[in-house]
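Table S5 (text form). Sequence records supplied for joint modeling of the two-component complex.
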Amino acid sequence: MKRINSVEDLEREREKIRAARDPNKPCITICTGTGCHAAGCYPVAGALREALRTGGIEGEVDLRITGCHGFCERGPLVVINPQRILYQRVKPDDAPDIVSETLKKGKIIERLLYVHPLTEEKIVREDDVPFYKLQKRIIFGNNGNIDPTSIEDYLAIGGYSALAKALTSMEPQQIVEEVKKSGLRGRGGGGFHTGTKWESCRKASGDTRYVICNADEGDPGAYMDRSLLEGNPHSVLEGMIIGAFAIGSNEGYVYVRNEYPLAVENLRIALDRANDWGFFGKNILGSGFDFNVKINRGGGAFVCGESTALMASLEGQPGEPRAKHIHTVESGLYEKPTNLNNVETWANVPYIVNLGAEQYRQIGTDGSKGTKIFSLVGKVNNTGLVEVPMGITLREIVYDIGGGIIGGKRFKAIQTGGPSGGCLPESLLDLPVDFDRLTEAGSMMGSGGMIVMDENNCMVDVAKYFMNFLKEESCGKCASCREGTKRMYEVLHRITEGNGREGDIALLEDLSFVTAEASLCALGGTAPNPVLSTIRYFREEYEVHIKNKKCPAGVCKELITYRIIPNQCTICGRCQKVCPSQAIRGKIKMKKPFEILPEKCIRCGMCSEACKFDAIEIV
Amino acid sequence: MDVNPVETILKRYDYQDSWLVAMLQDLQTEMHYLPKEALEYMAEKLGISRTRIFRVATFYAAFSLTPKGKHRIHVCLGTACHVRGAGLIVNTLERQLKIKPGGTTSDLQFSLDTVNCLGACASGPIVVVDGEYSGEMSSLKMEKLLKPYRKGKKES
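The corresponding structure-token record, covering 775 residues in total, follows.
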């Protein structure tokens, strides 16, 4: 590809790409996000290709491998365009029918349709499925329409037009103003105003400035950044170029988790292609502006999501944060002014530039503008990635989009904000989701993980889980964080073991205070949130563990016993066969219900999993 | 020690120590761990102290200073996997393989590690064996999953 040297050239090439495409030509898109990948989308793609060939319509139908569509629960997902027919849980064996029935005869295959769990209505079009219908997919929506490895696909949907607009018809300061006016706040967790950050970096003294894309998505249970990078990497890169132009930077970095190999690969391909086309390098689109980006892979340290730690890691040092008396916008990477934003934040930039701040501001609440992508996971029916306008309530997310709790169980809590966030109870389900409301409730937005928990999840165990995570991930620089997380873990551990003491809750609160107050970075500063929020909303559960030595949710191993319900036992012997510790007594020929010997039982749960008759209960 | 692979890596990054994390990642991929001699060689060639290279090598979870087994088992302990019972899977593997997370069986067949989140939360609990993802796992299914590896039918 020849380098594009002007906006006119770009538009001419775009027209060429569009002219060569027939919008009415049937196109099968297959989601290959990680969820669908684990569910086996590649064999499906192969089978479809083969079916098109044997059906003799190979040339008449396009087959497009796309990034994550979001509805991971129902994968592998296949969408037939232009009708937008959604087929879910597709297997390779379904491919011949899809070709012969739907593509050739225009018939819908009923068995592959999504069935509404409440009304039992079969839904044909992707957009009519409640999971998608109630979302506002301005950033994430294109994932399903483009092949992330094809820059032509991105250009065909208007890609790099925001860059063209920014470089030719806007002054850098004007772009900064526009982003400020849009009200965009950092999507990585902090929620700092993006435009204000850009302005400080732009005004900082010095010739060299850096821009960084933070793709070290470390919050467990959050994977929206991964899906954006895998499914639409050009949108992130385009945002970075615009930001660099506005700030006055010629060098950028993407720091991406090494645990995301496909994201690294697709990003690398996108960067190479964008380089070939002239969206990077010298004199971009004839504007005189130069910009290059390098990709760095993270080393698997959660703390590197913190800006100063990330910059230390980029310099080839251990990722330890430093005090931010001097902000990174003034002295960051190699002590130069550095502007760092998260993946989703960057992806919002082209949208804002194209649409204008005024219109962008219409979406969201007073203090939080635009949309947010959440990963809705855990004990919810429709797991996946959802993009919703700020201000939507938790109830709408969990019940209307998420389809409620698995198995009709009772909602107990929703965890937001990763290890820095907290668990919110049922009474807060009508809370509008935005940066400030979540913080007031003792949790936080974080990068957008939403883990739904039901009556079978123990809140003390969840607090212990996060504290274990944090004690492992604390870099150890501040004693308050290093020791504080460890001591809190120990206290939580003894409570879950049945050795909790009177006063442990107060002790946890004291430790929380010191850890938060005396630690340098946000990891320590917010580390107590999982503990404090569970104490605030689920104090009773702590007390039952400490005083009665019971785990009401049936999770904490030392506080539970497994029991066979005699009149539900069919004497099939399956439990006995799988038990690794010979803790089940009984013989099939004795025709008497089996029995669990508590002294031998190691509470591994294998019997309960093996039993097909729900005859094993936790007491 | 064969210095060639180390040299290739050093050259790839133009002997610039700011790319140290990337170099160690490549070395880890190449050798499946970071041999002490290779680190010492690298420090010398980069003109940095051994302290610094070992500090970086021990800071990041992606690096191991001890050899790993032929088959790598990663159990995701992300929050979504945790609430769906990933902890029980780890317990089962600990019992069956007689190693703790981070450990390697004495016959060097299996290494067991936990990861904080693989970003495939919708299909949790997730277990990855030699790069192959399996979703909706449980203790019972684990036995079946490992069988072909135990018999040596699957090569890594």
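Note: Residues 16 and 46 of chain B are 7 Å apart (CA to CA).
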